[in-house]
Amino acid sequence: MTTNHILTVENLTTRFQTPDGEVEAVNNVNFHIDPGETLGVVGESGSGKTQIFLSLMGLLAKNGASTGSVRYKDKEILNLQPRELNKIRGVSMSMIFQDPMTSLNPFLKISRQMTEVLVEHRGMSESDALARAITMLDRVGIPGAAQRVHMYPHEFSGGMRQRVMIAMALLCDPEVLIADEPTTALDVTVQAQILDLLRDLQTDFNTATVMITHDLGVVAGLCDRVMVMYGGRVVETGSVRDIYYDSHHPYTEGLLKSMPRIDRADEESLFAIPGQPPNLQNLPKGCAYQERCEYVFDRCCAERPLLREFGNGRASACFREDDK
Amino acid sequence: MSVMNKSAKKDASPILSVRDLKVHFPIPSKGLFAPDRQLKAVDGVNFDLYPGETLGVVGESGCGKSTLGRAILQLIPPTDGQVAWLGKNIVGAPHRDMQPLRRDLQIIFQDPLASLNPRMTIGEIIAEPLVTHKPELGKEEIKARVKRMMARVGLLPQMINRYPHEFSGGQCQRIGIARAMILEPKLIVCDEPVSALDVSIQAQIVNLLQELQREFDLSLIFISHDLSIVRHICHRIMVLYLGNVAELADRDSIYAAPRHPYTKALISAVPIPDPEIERNKERIVLTGDLPSPLSPPSGCVFRTRCPFAKDKCAQEPPVLERVSDSQEVACHFHDSI
Ligand SMILES: Nc1ncnc2c1ncn2[C@@H]1O[C@H](COP(=O)(O)OP(=O)(O)OP(=O)(O)O)[C@@H](O)[C@H]1O
Ligand SMILES: Nc1ncnc2c1ncn2[C@@H]1O[C@H](COP(=O)(O)OP(=O)(O)OP(=O)(O)O)[C@@H](O)[C@H]1O
Ligand code: SF4
Ligand code: SF4
Ligand SMILES: [Mg+2]
Ligand SMILES: [Mg+2]
């Protein structure tokens, strides 16, 4: 089958070795993304969202290892040598990290941090690289970019720093942009500016974007497709409309119902999913959601539900579907 | 719930009255002989709070929400103004007068784990206020009360001897709530109590706070940057901007018809988890960042980002004006915009 997927992930599994045993952070995850498309990745804290993308960027912590396959266009990139990976990483595929300070060096001026990759990977001269850096800072809405490019990270406000990170991720016109909670630490008015910026970039450059977030409102406004994670596994995928208006998995349903909404005055108490998220070190036999699921029945505790497709790119991992 | 509270509020007298409250932090200047500068974190806040009422305090990071909450509880000494608790001003009250009031005034924090002493068992953590304020109670009685409160907030009482690190974020927040509730206070300042929690756990904690409020006729000051949760839990909302109140109104008024340009922008920026609505709604996108609180704009503090700013806005600070029974706004042009 020929596709124009720019990124294809198959059977990705990532495990960490810890003194207390193995942690299965990512389990048998499959997805793909096309140019110009935005994929939303949602799920509770610890459900494996970040580790999927650190795995495919080759940035896992030392105690972690991945198996499976990740193809950028037709090229297998999982577990590639750093030297090979660096030709793609930060060039064709960039990531905006959850913690801004992971990708910004506090001791180096922004100019230095931005020009380095261009000189190294694009063979640009220092002065061309600087001009490009200023253009990108300008593009993400940093006023006075020509002066500010010479400042240190701590001299920027939180929102500005986030924009610097986006500018850095976009320096080499990546075809895939992975944004890990890029607006979570920001105020809503600044978040709105950044989301507008991401939307514009998508229209202008046809960038394939992955948006990792816990904010279902952000996903509703930005994404084409959604992948819902629970306990290290994908439990549901579908178009944004299918997920929001016709969710099939009980966790997705619960998550959507438990969001208080600014456009509604509900007098009753909120719907709350009972219990706690599962411990990845010690997942129950059967469905990881069984202890919190209102529809749980015998089979859920004995067998693990696999992701089952039912057309239109929709899939859900739940036995309840079998009876529908 | 809110209907009941609104009617109750009319005949009751306020439990807390805050008048012209200011907290200015001195910031050492760089020059050797230059005078210290003042960071006006809270710059003249007024409001009343009634029994059983929840007041939401919202605004961007650094606008003074936490400072206001702490200054009300006298955990930070106010620079100026009054805080009347049950009719009596407590600003500058000596320690010996404050001590008995602490029983009625509690606080819970954003970071559940960091706010709990890691070397104490959760039983000891929850019991601590009882041991301090009710030393006459016997050991058995204290233990019984702690277990009762644990059960009430949804913690298994047999976990009494466990340590905080053995609990999840949501459970730690329940421990913080149990500790705040153990003396059956009249007011709890909740400083971003659910911000660090997962969506599915947030709803559990919000519901718990609402139940406790009903059961104990608690008043809450609910500090948050999440305007969706605030709409759900609060009866009245105060919008802060650089230490100043931009708008103060009943929940229904402020969400249905915000009057201050900042409130309008803030509400319109909150993403709605519904693709059709979110993609088609009207949004007011503000430009620029929050100005430095060390050199706030002259006149109206919001004018550098306000799409309606005129000359007058740079010259005169607007005062909070009552525009209806249930709504107060600080904007020179609230009538025309
Ligand atoms: N180096 C490591 N060693 C052991 N376990 C790890 C390591 N790094 C991550 N994990 C575990 O992997 C799981 C998945 O983590 P991940 O960072 O992907 O979560 P997430 O979904 O991004 O959560 P959040 O919303 O909090 O960012 C977590 O349970 C985490 O504790
Ligand atoms: N002890 C202090 N000394 C000097 N400045 C302070 C002090 N505490 C707070 N500030 C400043 O006062 C202002 C208000 O801070 P505050 O913590 O009240 O904001 P906030 O609204 O709670 O923000 P956030 O949403 O980030 O918690 C900020 O500019 C802050 O830097
Ligand atoms: S498989 Fe069973 S427990 Fe799991 S989500 Fe479906 S109904 Fe619930
Ligand atoms: S007073 Fe002026 S600057 Fe301030 S909010 Fe009103 S119109 Fe805008
Ligand atoms: Mg993450
Ligand atoms: Mg605060």
From TrEMBL, chain A:
One family name in Pfam for this protein: ABC_tran
Record protein name field: Oligopeptide transporter ATP-binding component
Gene Ontology MF: a single term: ATP hydrolysis activity
InterPro entries given in the database record: AAA+_ATPase, ABC_Ni/Peptide_Import, ABC_transporter-like_ATP-bd, ABC_transporter-like_CS, Oligopep_ABC_C, P-loop_NTPase
Subcellular locations according to the entry: Cell inner membrane
Family: Belongs to the ABC transporter superfamily.
A GO-annotated cellular component: plasma membrane
NCBIfam families xrefs: oligo_HPY
Stored PROSITE patterns: ABC_TRANSPORTER_1, ABC_TRANSPORTER_2
ABC transporter domain sequence ranges: 7-256
Stretches assigned to coiled coil: none
CDD domains associated with the record: ABC_NikE_OppD_transporters (cd03257)
The encoding gene: oppD
Annotated keywords: ATP-binding, Cell membrane, Membrane, Nucleotide-binding, Transport
The organism's taxonomic lineage, starting at the top: Bacteria, Pseudomonadati, Pseudomonadota, Alphaproteobacteria, Rhodospirillales
From TrEMBL, chain B:
Alphabetical keyword list: ATP-binding, Nucleotide-binding, Transport
Domain of life: Bacteria
InterPro entries for this protein: AAA+_ATPase (IPR003593), ABC_transp_ATP-bind (IPR050319), ABC_transporter-like_ATP-bd (IPR003439), ABC_transporter-like_CS (IPR017871), Oligopep_ABC_C (IPR013563), P-loop_NTPase (IPR027417)
GO MF, any single term: ATP binding
Domain ABC transporter: 18-267
Membrane topology: Peripheral membrane protein
Gene3D superfamilies for the chain: P-loop containing nucleotide triphosphate hydrolases
Entry's localization field: Cell inner membrane
PANTHER family recorded: D,D-DIPEPTIDE TRANSPORT ATP-BINDING PROTEIN DDPF-RELATED, TRANSPORT ATP-BINDING PROTEIN
Similarity-based family: Belongs to the ABC transporter superfamily.
Protein name (Swiss-Prot/TrEMBL): Oligopeptide transport system ATP-binding protein
Organism encoding this protein: Thalassospira tepidiphila
